[in-house]
Protein 1
Amino acid sequence: GQNIDQPTEMTATEGAIVQINCTYQTSGFNGLFWYQQHAGEAPTFLSYNVLDGLEEKGRFSSFLSRSKGYSYLLLKELQMKDSASYLCAVRPSSNTGKLIFGQGTTLQVKP
Amino acid sequence: DTGVSQDPRHKITKRGQNVTFRCDPISEHNRLYWYRQTLGQGPEFLTYFQNEAQLEKSRLLSDRFSAERPKGSFSTLEIQRTEQGDSAMYLCASSSTSAVPGLALVNEQFFGPGTRLTVL
């Protein structure tokens, strides 16, 4: 089966750092994506990992360990606008391109 | 091209009626996906096309659902005999399959704003 787990909710303070974890068990693996989704809006692409290690993009970094079936998204210097749902998604195959999503982590940033 | 567009943005219908949604992908993208999302959940894959060919359909998808992409550009998703359990946000996404030499094939999916369906 396909299973992707992430915490349902997290709260953090403006200016702080937060780490959102994601564990996955899928029939195949061809990359892990993180998307951001503000309430009532479409998901927007944040990051992609296919090899083990850390990918950094400005205030956002994403880490992957394929042997552990584990990823995290790290958000630094949190801003109020970072309050959103963060979706972890696995692409199980290069042939299909479809994504299998976790339930999403709702992050609330407080002043 | 400003991105993926979907029409309508909202649809309210009575149980038993048929509904059809349209998605216009980013013009140079050859892959098009349909997902369904309910409150508090991540998007759930429904089906996808490469050009005009429907290459995969979720086993969870009832035969009341059908999708087409007749000319390899826009796509339609039809739900027949709607049920209250069909109420959800229907998201369309598109991606390319082109490879950039020396770079990993990211081919991220770009999502449209969605069509929110309410079945009364």
Protein 2
Amino acid sequence: AQTVTQSQPEMSVQEAETVTLSCTYDTSESDYYLFWYKQPPSRQMILVIRQEAYKQQNATENRFSVNFQKAAKSFSLKISDSQLGDAAMYFCAYTTSGTYKYIFGTGTRLKVLA
Amino acid sequence: EAQVTQNPRYLITVTGKKLTVTCSQNMNHEYMSWYRQDPGLGLRQIYYSMNVEVTDKGDVPEGYKVSRKEKRNFPLILESPSPNQTSLYFCASSPLGGLNQPQHFGDGTRLSIL
């Protein structure tokens, strides 16, 4: 069965610094997709970044980038130049084109210190 | 405005009293899904639907029912709610399973079963 593991329940980062959130997953599929979602205190779920497994190049979206290590089944999120508005719960998620069933991790709460 | 609308936003009810949480989207999305969010467990998928009259179980379907009679609506039914179904529930929709476009999430429904 597929699993998604976020081993850091909570992280802190100083404003303007860089932080990396970890995510590992387990799957026997070859065609899958990985996502990072952000949930601020408003409870909204917002897509931060997505990665197709068949793409070698790591995805980037402005200050957000991923380190996708397919062989190691690792999908970490790097936030550069952290801002107070980045404070939120971050969820790693996985799905495949075969089932469209989603698996989410347990989340990492990110605190940004002024 | 493109949105996923859930109702009610908050509900306190008693064990065994049937309830329905409605979900409606105005984006003509094929894919719709229900999740529950619990502290320390992240989001877990309850049911999902690829299109009208097509539904599949997620990881935690026990105690829940869904139907997809129209493309825009995907209600979640608790026939006999129990206290362990107290949770924060999210409905989401996307085109074609959300692989190339993000899932759009509703604002959440906080259910308390006494």
